[in-house]
Design brief:
Blueprint lengths: L12 H21 L3 H4 L14 H30 L3 E3 L1 H24 L7 H27 L5 E3 L4
Antiparallel strand pairs: 1-2
Helix pairs in contact: 1-3, 4-5
Length: 161
């Protein structure tokens, strides 16, 4: 949905997209921070980026970001189903994004459960969850770039409106 087609009542969506993209960037950055790549490749030695080598800092920021992302999911669902569904429909690109975000959220929930002291998963299941979480995020990045280049938005105006 472009700013020209955004109804005035939903103009707050112009703030939603940049915040959503910033949140995804922070989630990706802190997600990669869970792996020791920032210290190993001396990125953490760059002034101001030392916190990227601190596992617990990136871990907690990632968890806080996940809570905010779930809030964004709820907000977007309420706005679409409550206010916009009669005038707009979700595009195929939106369904791909929703499926990938759902997969990321589900594997993320399993990763949180894995970190609890009383929950034990098999090593194979843990590896599958870890790699799946990373793979779904990479797919989201690739498809996001493809949809951005091809200008595929989340919503299309329904015929007759």
């Amino acid at each position: 949905m472009t700013p020209e087609t955004t109804p005035k009542a939903f103009s707050e969506l112009t703030y939603f997209k940049p915040l959503y993209l910033l949140l995804l960037f922070i989630m990706g950055l802190t997600g990669f921070g869970q792996m020791p790549i920032f210290k190993r490749y001396y990125i953490a030695d760059i002034p101001g980026l030392a916190w990227l080598a601190d596992f617990y800092a990136t871990h907690y920021i990632h968890y806080i970001g996940a809570v905010i992302l779930f809030g964004f999911f709820v907000y977007a669902a309420v706005v679409y189903f409550g206010l916009m569904r009669k005038q707009f429909r979700l595009t195929r690109a939106a369904y791909v994004r929703i499926a990938l975000l759902a997969a990321i959220a589900i594997t993320g929930i399993f990763r949180v459960l894995k970190n609890l002291p009383d929950v034990v998963f098999s090593p194979l299941f843990t590896m599958v969850i870890d790699i799946s979480h990373l793979a779904f995020m990479m797919f989201l990045m690739v498809f996001g770039i493809i949809f951005m280049i091809s200008k595929k938005g989340w919503l299309d105006k329904k015929l007759g409106f």
